[in-house]
Amino acid sequence: MKHIEILDRSFRRLAFIDNDLEEGIHFVDDNLSTSIESGVYILEMEIPKDTPLTRHVTEGNYITFINRNNLRVLLTITKATDNRNTISIYCEDTSLNLINKVVGKIEEPAQPQNIDFYINHGLENTGWSIGFNESKKKKKLEFSGNETLLARIRNIAKEFEVEFYFEVDLENGKNPDFLLHVVESRIEGSKGFRISSDDSLDTIEREINLDNIVTKLIVRGASIKEEGTTSGSGSLITEDKKKIKQPTAVNFDSSKSSGATAISTSNWNRAWVDKFNMNAADPHYVTGAYIDNFLRTYYSDSPLIGHGSTIKEMSDYFGISVGAAMGVWAKETTFGRASCGGRYNFGCIMWTSSSPFPKKWANDRNWIDPPTIKSGIAAWFKLLRYNYIETGQVKYKDFLNKYSPAFENSQDTFKNLMWGALKSFGYDTTDTVKKSNYSSSNDNPLTLDLSANTGNNTSSNSMTTKHNEMIEKLIKWFQDRKGKVGYSMSSARSGPNYYDCSSAVYSALKYAGFKTKINYLGSTVSLWEDIGPNLLMTEIPRNQARRGDLFLAGGRGAASAGANGHTGVFLDNNTIIHCNYADNGISVTPQQGRSGSPIYCFRLNNKFADVSIGGHISNMPTSSKTELAVQEALKQVGKPYVYGAVGPNSFDCSGLVIYAYNRAGFNIGHRATTYTIAQQKSPFKKISESEARRGDLVICVGGSHVAILLDKPSSGKGVVHAATPQLGVITQKSLMGPIGYYRVTD
User: Fold this and answer.
1) Is residue 351 domain-resident?
2) 425, 451, 475 — which closes off a domain?
């Protein structure tokens, strides 16, 4: 192999894999194999975590290289296993979207036709077209049944006594051309890849995705400047442009700028560490590489080694000091070397029914069990932000009194290690610069991905960002009218010159997109009727109220009618903006003494959230979760089919299964395919046709397609599935030649 590159899903170069390139991604134990000469390739290798660029080594990205015949090979990373110091990857020849397309019958034409007549019948709307065609024959053929397009092309090729192969003609960074070539003789040796009508992928004795077939890739065009790649001069482009910008500390120990020292707890200062702000800005030299160097030097077996960039990114995103994390992790798990229930539960977080994580029993309680190091890091930063800092425990002393009260533990053991960690990194508690928070309470640590963040201080999680934008629009509606409108409970309350408390809230909700179908500006009574996980908002404790939350005060439910209730929006935990009688319009006031009492607080539900953070799914009966998965799948009907897509905007057949069942609380922790389902890899279990029921899976179309049953197979109610590029996600009465039934287990 030579000239190995990683491409993203848009075929843009992300990085080079090259042991001779100091700043590239390195590899060891590579094993390239093929089942037929110049045929189906499988690549396995180990990637050391010695550069931040390894974050590009993720499932779904492409690896491309030049083979011994000087032809460009394109593989998909189908599995990336995160080990302590390396990433193990398994790659397969890039899949085509042909295999899952189901084609119907072709009636015999009145006159003999060329081969392209029959092939184009199936290629329509797939993005593929015939390239060169060496066949000169004409035939009258009939195809009576349904089959996959790949099977149809093979049958056509047999009838015309030709061979075919696929080519992806790619200009770096642009959409490729997908071509199917028809040739009179086999394509062998140096001429290129081939998959002929008598070649079968299931002869490969490996964990290969049976949806895959062979491609040939030609890459042309000059190098482009992408993050972590080489420019024309060969210099690496910096990653800094994609980091969230945070202020840096003003006061720090400059002697630690060249590297953190070992943690020492001698002569520690209790008063000094008590004053430390958990959201303190980091010294400018505290980077991902700095963190990794500290861990490698003093804790060489820490699983956190190689994840310094993730620690820094998460700390900046949640607006929390790196020092806060290092000090707590030093005490709780010695930087992950000791287990706290779950292996990657670095901050010893207890499991609750609202947790999105699996649970693990240890000693006398359940702990969260994050499946990856990244999710474990994110879980701790989110916990600190929303369970402590947002509720007022900003100083380390206040944080510790809640996190580990003195009656439970000796706080001195926490404080001396926190002091030692802060000192080793050069923090100074006289510094008052604080980080900003760019996260959302709706962020799910299991799926949070900051890899696409840019320097504009916004989250790459578009669903979270969209919700936050709507919150800001809600507040903007009020701010734009502050001091400019009057208060009225008469017919003038609908604006634009007068509002009462509830008509103002409803108008703002409509403007922001939370209540788009409003024919009448409701009241506090109707707001009380819009509380629930699938409605407008969810009730929260008063001490958790933050920017964008709503309040209702006074009478509850119908008792709030007329002047008996009040409502408005929080600007922060202590400040509200509301339309009120006392100020004859919209004003910003303290909550205390102005909102009315008793006060009830509510968080607007994020309808874009990928996974419920409420955690109520975790302890549902399996049957209820299965029904929830079916409902999630049905919600996607009408969305497009895109090969390899796992939602939320598009899907392929297995992607819909992953999305729906993960949303329902099942743990499908890998890129499930028809192959992994048929092999009964957890959480899939083979069942008989008589056992199959609503919510079970059916593998059909010769083993290349999967769908979700809407009832028993004999019921006639059919399935919901991501069908084809033409049809997208649909419900369908027929089962398309079922060959096996499977259940998703809890």
Assistant:
1) yes
2) 425
Does residue 566 lie in a domain region?
Answer: yes
Backbone angles phi, psi at 586, to 5 degrees: -90, 130
Q: Are 603 and 538 in contact (CB under 8 A)?
A: yes
What lies within 8 Å, CB to CB, of 706 at 6+ separation is 653, 654, 657, 674, 677, 697, 698, 699, 700, 721
Structurally, the chain folds into a number of domains equal to 4
CB atoms within 10 A of CB 691: 11
Average pLDDT over residues 306-335: 92
Q: Residue 189: left if φ>0, alpha if ψ -120 to 50, beta else—which one?
A: left
Quote the tokens at residue 102.
Answer: 């189901």
Could you tell me the two tokens for 185? 């003789």
Percent of the chain at pLDDT > 70 equals: 80
Residue 283's H or E segment, with its range, is none
CB within 8 Å of 318: residues ≥ 6 apart? 381, 382, 384, 385, 437, 438, 439
Quick one: DSSP state of residue 304?
A: T
Residue 695 and residue 587 share a domain? no
- The C-alpha atoms of residue 73 and residue 41 are separated, in whole angstroms, by 8
Global confidence as pTM: 0.37
Residue span of the structural domain in which 420 resides = 254-425
User: Six-digit token pair at 608?
Assistant: 């874009």
Single residue among 398, 425, 452 that ends a domain in this structure: 425
**Half-sphere exposure for 720 (CA within 13 Å, toward CB):** 23
